[in-house]
Specification:
single chain, Hect, E3 ligase catalytic domain fold, 4-stranded mixed sheet, 3-stranded antiparallel sheet, 48% helix
């Protein structure tokens, strides 16, 4: 596309829509509806391209292939790509496209209009097919959820509306909307014969709630703890300085001075070690300071939020591992691990429950046990009815 500001904004908009979960054909339709000139028409009317090669009767007829081509070009990140095509012999008239791994790329040769993080995020989005349903949107977690046992992708199953069905006795039931994930390597055949993996069933809302809690705690707790430690370290510097003055003037005897100094220096040393560990968590994914700064920028943008958007999920989340549910305790417990971009796995410290929370949980446990016993009695009764009939 040309170098006009409107063309630059169109490219940026294409990358933004991709990160939001739109596919090339969806983006082409959006640009056509907004009457944005397609690249060939844009360049032809400005004398950049040969008019004879392009159909000028449909200036807004974008195609998915054009969008995909734009999204694949490293030139928008500021790089120069050479030797895109080649010939097996100088006698050949037909050019061949050079494999992606054999391209010669010279980095940072001109001003970029797309930053590298946005470009890489868009490439991640294009690797995963997000199918839309009757709601007209795809699940933004698709492509990020993996089975913790076999490593396979977890497939999303979604029925966005309530459905009705009739059983053998003619009784009609209503099924609520469905939105969940299960391991892609699990199937009836695998379960009966190969036993390659188990279902690892988990509802989408559970994953989203887990991600929201952990992302929110990541954004708040890391910055808050670092700032708190820095403030206390500065306070200790002042205290130690005054301690030396009081010892020099005889206000504090030497023995007392040594005890106090040792305690303050120990606390300051521990705080510095803790800050180092916190910083190492931020730098664990990549020691490059640019990437660390990028993570901090993301944290600052999303310190307070009420809803996870597809863009936020892609900015924060690298992958989500789902373990098989454990029912050995009588309750269904399921472990979910969240891996964030730039810092890797993140575990939120679990606070100690208050007496009120403990009492509330005991009441819930008692209620669940009574419900389970009633369900067991009902099942036994139904079995007796069928056996007798």
């Amino acid at each position: 596309m040309g170098n006009r500001p409107d063309a630059v904004e169109t490219v940026r908009r294409i990358f933004k829509l991709t990160i939001e979960g739109k596919g090339p054909c969806d983006i082409a339709r959006i640009l056509a509806e907004d009457k944005v000139e397609r690249p060939s028409h844009h360049m032809t009317v400005r004398g950049i391209a040969n008019r004879g090669y392009h159909d000028m009767t449909h200036p807004y007829a974008w195609s998915g292939n054009t969008i995909a081509h734009i999204l694949s070009k490293p030139e928008y990140v500021g790089h120069t790509v050479n030797f895109r095509t080649y010939k097996d012999s100088y006698k050949d008239k037909q050019y061949k496209f050079t494999p992606k791994e054999d391209l010669v790329i010279f980095e940072n040769t001109h001003p970029a209009i797309i930053d590298s993080e946005t470009f890489e995020m868009a490439q991640r989005c294009r690797k995963t097919v997000r199918r839309t349903d009757s709601l007209g949107e795809a699940n933004p977690l698709t492509g990020l959820v993996f089975c913790a046992d076999c490593g396979g992708k977890m497939y999303n199953h979604r029925i966005p509306h309530r459905t009705e069905y009739t059983n053998a006795k003619g009784k009609t039931y209503s099924r609520p909307p469905k939105d969940d994930y299960s391991c892609s390597t699990y199937s009836l055949t695998n379960r009966k014969f190969n036993k390659q993996c188990t279902q690892h069933y988990i509802r989408t809302v559970v994953i989203r709630e887990t991600s929201a809690i952990k992302q929110n705690d990541t954004a708040k707790s890391s910055r808050k703890q670092l700032a708190k430690n820095q403030k206390r370290i500065a306070e200790l510097d002042t205290v130690i300085s005054k301690l030396f003055e009081q010892n020099a003037t005889g206000i504090i005897p030497d023995q007392r001075f040594e005890i106090l100094l040792s305690g303050y220096e120990k606390e300051q040393s521990e705080l510095k070690e803790q800050n180092t560990e916190l910083q190492e968590k931020v730098d664990a994914f990549d020691s490059d300071s640019v990437r660390a700064d990028k993570f901090i920028e993301i944290v600052k943008r999303h310190t307070d939020f009420e809803e996870l958007t597809p863009t936020m999920i892609l900015e924060f989340v690298d992958k989500i591992l789902v373990y098989e549910a454990d029912k050995s305790s009588g309750e269904r417990m399921q472990k979910v691990e969240l891996y964030l971009n730039f810092i890797g796995k993140f575990d939120v410290p679990i606070p100690e429950p208050t007496p009120e929370e403990i009492a509330e949980e005991e009441q819930k446990q008692l209620k669940r046990e009574r419900h389970r016993e009633a369900q067991q009695r009902y099942v036994a009764k139904q079995k007796a009815v069928f056996a007798g009939g």
